[in-house]
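Case study B.
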Amino acid sequence: MDFVSFLIQVLNSLQYGLLLFLVASGLTLVFGIMGIINLAHGSFYMIGAYLAFALTSMTGNLMLSIALGVPLAFAFGALLEWLLFSHLYKRDHLEQVLLTYGLILIFEELRSLAVGDDVHGVAIPAIFSASIPLSDNLSYPVYRLVISVVCLALAGGLYYLIQRTRLGMMIRAGSHDRDMVKALGIDINVLYRTVFALGVALAALAGMLAAPISSVYPGMGSSVLIISFVIVVIGGVGSVWGALVAALLIGFADTFGKVLLPDLAGLMVYLVMAVVLLWRPEGIFRKG
Amino acid sequence: MKQTQPQVRRIVRKTIALALAAVIPALGAFAAQAADKVKVGLMLPYTGTYASLGNAITNGFKQYVTENGGKLGGHEIEYFVVDDESDPSKATENASKLIKRDQVDVLVGTVHSGVALAMAKVARDNKTLLIIPNAGADELTGPLCAPNVFRSSFSAWQPAYAMGKIVADRGHKNVVTVTWKYSFGEQSVAGFKEAFEKAGGKIAKELYLPFPNVEFQPFLTEIASLKPDAVFVFFAGGGAVKFVKDYDAAGLKKSIPLYGSGFLTDGTIDAMGGSGEGLMTTLHYADNLTNPKDQAFRKAYALAYKAQPDVYAVQGYDAAQMLKTGLEGLKGGKFDKEVVAKAMETAKVDSPRGAFTLSKAHNPVQDIYLRKVEGRENKLVGVAEKALADPARGCRM
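Model:
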């Protein structure tokens, strides 16, 4: 591998890692803070992508679709929390797994009924459709760089929200001791509903942003679900920074694994996970 | 209570089994009296990713039966339908159910190669006739071939092999291949490699990624630095769309031509949004064949189902044609699978794709077309290989 290729592979790793972070961030919120094992997280990603497809075919503009789609996803998340997830906090993980697995099946079938099983594409917004030449024959789509920037901005925003705002403080307190927070007169139900809806909105946003480059197809949710869990576990459950670092680590492992050890490419991600967990069983950034 | 439940269940199950044991022979006798009805078990995906393929195959099959007044070779056709969900772990059970419970005479299925491999095993064990209307795994008419197993579609080897020669003929000497690391992808690359190397070409590198991973960026970077004359890929569905779009967005399409086997551009052109334009692929069907059979077929299909037929519908239609030839062998007599299989071997199928016969291993000996994406169609460029037969390596029959 020559030096230019190496640099481009580094760029690939960063870009893939950041996209993974976007998907995993919602999961780390819901799993880490609310303690809910949400297998349906991938479905929200899928729903986001299909929303982007449906809204873009109506409005003809991806950015407008995202502006419409994110509040829709947030509202949908709040509704789901009120209807289903709010009954799960006191139950054990097995019941959460059952419910959320059931949701995967339901969402897949609904998707199949509503839009069918064909593969669809979403156009990249015209202003980002250019490519930057990197070497004599390879160029890099601007849209991929835009996604990376958005992901970085979101990472910063989430960090600020959770560490620096009053809402974030309540969320952190709620994750430690639900009853104590309640006793202090904070409406924990509203708090949890907000966090869950935020998690759904983040997953859907990831799906919407990824739709133009990944295309929209049945089963796309399950492909991101496992890798998201890997990231959350490596990064330390509930830690936004942890998820970011873990996502970048996975981005590098996957990219360079494919190029340098093609026979082990499928294993690479899990090898990294095993090594990290041996070194730090609680994940990289798990705090007490 | 909990402990007695299994017991209760066992008793209930026994009772049902006894009742069935009493009823089924009676039903069997009844069926025998009705003499010439033939039971066809359609085991295809009706839910999940491949649902549209399963439906197209079913539509094609039923269309041919309807064209023949509901009868094939004088025998009325009765359908038993099972959704295989493209789930290999349920395949054996589903196929056994059709054979043992519904007592089907002929099994038709399926799309997913993993499921089809399990079905072929059940069919071999029970000596039930099986017609495979899509699954392209080489093994089905290779090491696993059997007197009672037939295929109306293609083998992974066929379109890929045809493309190997085309790419060499077009002056490309040095090619990189990319596919998923699963059997269909590997078989496609092997077929391509065989023909390409025979024609003097060299494979610079074979790139594989785990199925169904679609993060292609590292490979595109590697292709750009290897600078081959051309790239050959096998992908299908969402992966095909994403690869073609990424390849275009990376600017590689301009400098390194991309070729594909089979389904890279089938049912995916719209989603590619222009990135697929000009792409060349090989398959046993194309969008604007000029034979009258295809035109009649397309017209009738569009009228019956309010949708345009695709290669899957053709494969379903031809499965029914093959069965007709088989049943004609009975000459109106009782169903005898060995007679039907023998007759089916000699089938000359007047397919919408162009007439084909069956190889010794029961795979179509067919023309493979070179197609080029123009607009929303896979336009016919020419015949890549005339009457190409799968080598059926490992088939001892």
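Residues 34-154+289-362 of chain B form a domain with the Rossmann fold fold (CATH 3.40.50.2300). The remaining cases will be described in the next quarterly update.
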